[in-house]
Amino acid sequence: MSYFPYKNGELYAENVALADIAKKFGTPTYVYSKAALLENFFAYADICKGRDALICYAMKANSNLAVLNLLARHGAGFDLVSGGELLRVLAAGGDPAKCIFSGVGKSRDEIRLALSHDILCFNVESVAELHRLNEVAGEMGKVAPVSLRVNPNVDAKTHPYIATGLKANKFGVDFEDALETFRTGSKLPHLDVIGIDCHIGSQLLDDAPLLEALDKLIELIDTLATEDIPLHHIDLGGGLGITYADEKPVAVQDYVSRVFARIAQWRDTNHHGKPIKVIFEPGRSIVGNAGILLTTIEYVKPGTEKNFCIVDAAMNDLMRPAMYQAWMGVQEVTRREKPPATYDVVGPVCESGDWLARSRSLAIEPGDLLAILSAGAYGMTMASNYNTRGRAAEVMVDGDRVHLIRRREEQSELFALESIILD
Ligand code: LLP
Questions:
Q1: Are 299 and 343 in contact (CB under 8 A)?
Q2: Whose CA is nearest to atom 23 of ligand 1?
Q3: What are the CA-CA distances from residue 21 to residues 65, 249, 397 (Å)?
Q4: What is the pLDDT of residues 167-214, one digit of tens each?
């Protein structure tokens, strides 16, 4: 079901007309549907109910406090990648004991912060990180819980910038070196090696590569068990895709059930039915289609080769098209009775790469509103102040109510941290 339906030719977010949101909060504005967010979260949570499983929402996809708080209240943990993200979780009322810390470059300060809050575990990505973690934990008189991120070398068949499970990627420990790295980790006095994880890529439409990765992890866990390095959890990362155009991603329920079925069969055969905790780190599949970017058309600029529709949102608000040539859906907020023309939808930033959508058929006039669809994930979190543009406002719709969850940045705030040298 779409939470952004047309009603009498007007586009809505749940029960609120987007035109009313634009009037009240201005544009560009990210608009999220609370019901869509929860539906996407429960697609995972319902199947995990009653099992030893944890959903650690990958908050890099959308880390607004209201989003985090909503998910935390419904039992989510978090996959974080910086000290800043941990502080956000705490500010949002999330439970650090349900947080895992991923990323290849954790600083000593970040490790210290995470240890002081007793997070669930560190997803360690290299031997050097194992040693640093052991050292910092030792200094603090603590034992750090560790999961080793292995790189299963499977092809996720996605955009090269968002594929992470191949040997050529900077992430994780090579599968061939994993056993030795586990041995090293298990000997370090201030580490407790408890799990294994992988994340092979993002926007995956098929779960076959994920299940292939699962099989490789299972194989390694069995080998480790024979060396008396028992693991207590298996973390498959995130990665499930969403529909931007006409993609047909595997249903969350189907993927998660296949994972549980495979794990049950394995545990029954090799581990006398002893369960193992399963962790998922979904980001995009929870927030992606729960948000749109609302923007106003400033100018319509007809050309000999192309027509341009120049809007007040730009690549600094939504990087995905410029960065990955991503295709994002575009809809008129108010449908017009006139023949459409073909436009490139572009922003005001001074770069040819500043486009949001190309060759779209739209029936529009200057001053009209457009919605850029499926912009809830990696939209606002990747926004910048390029061209000294304030970042967009964010609102969350809940039925017929609209909550401002991030006010628009004032222009005077944009250089408030800078100073002029006075000599
Ligand atoms: N876990 C780890 C370790 C990750 O690196 C990521 C995403 C996730 C989980 C969540 O993956 P998801 O479920 O969202 O696919 N900016 C890009 C996507 C970058 C993904 C980075 N890692 C985009 O806009 O497509």
A1: no
A2: 378
A3: 20, 31, 10
A4: 667 889 999 999 999 999 999 999 999 999 999 999 999 999 999 999
Dist. CA 286 → ligand 1 center (Å)? 12
* CA–centroid distance, residue 56 to ligand 1 (Å): 12
Q: What would the pLDDT profile of 131-148 be if each residue is shown by its tens digit?
A: 999 999 999 999 999 999
Q: If you measure from the C-alpha of residue 359 to the centroid of ligand 1, how many angstroms do you get, rounded to a whole number?
A: 28
Write the CB contacts of 289 (distance below 8 Å, at least 6 apart in sequence).
Answer: 36, 40, 242, 243, 373, 374, 376
Q: What pLDDT score was predicted for residue 156?
A: 77
Domain spans of the chain, in order of start: 6-32+288-415, 103-280
Confidence of residue 153 (pLDDT cuts 50, 70, 90): confident
Residue with tokens 């069995």, as numbered in its chain: 222
CA–centroid distance, 125 to ligand 1, in Å, is 16
DSSP string, 277-344: EEEE---HHHHGGGEEEEEEEEEEE--SS--EEEES--TTT--HHHHH-----EEESB--SS--EEEE
Nearest CA to ligand 1 atom 24: 378
Q: Could you tell me the distance, in angstroms and rounded to a whole number, from the CA of residue 383 to the centre of ligand 1? A: 16
User: pTM to 2 decimals?
Assistant: 0.97
Residue to probe by mutation, ligand 1, list 210, 284, 285, 293, most atoms within 8 Å of CB? 284
Contact 295, 313 (CB under 8 A): yes
Nearest-atom number in ligand 1 for the CA of 326 is 25
Mean pLDDT of all residues belonging to the chain: 96
Check if CATH label 2.60.40.1220 holds for domain 103-280: no
Q: What is the pLDDT of residues 222-259, one digit of tens each?
A: 999 999 999 999 999 999 999 999 999 999 999 999 99
Active-site annotation holds for 56: no
- Residues 283-314: pLDDT tens digits? 999 999 999 999 999 999 999 999 999 999 99
For the CA of 285, the nearest atom of ligand 1:
13
Ligand 1 pocket, residues with Cβ under 6 angstroms: 58, 61, 79, 102, 162, 199, 202-203, 237-239, 281-285, 320, 324, 378
Written out in words, the top-level CATH class of the domain with range 6-32+288-415 is: mainly beta
Q: Report which protein residue has its CA nearest ligand 1's atom 6.
A: 238
pLDDT for residue 196? 98
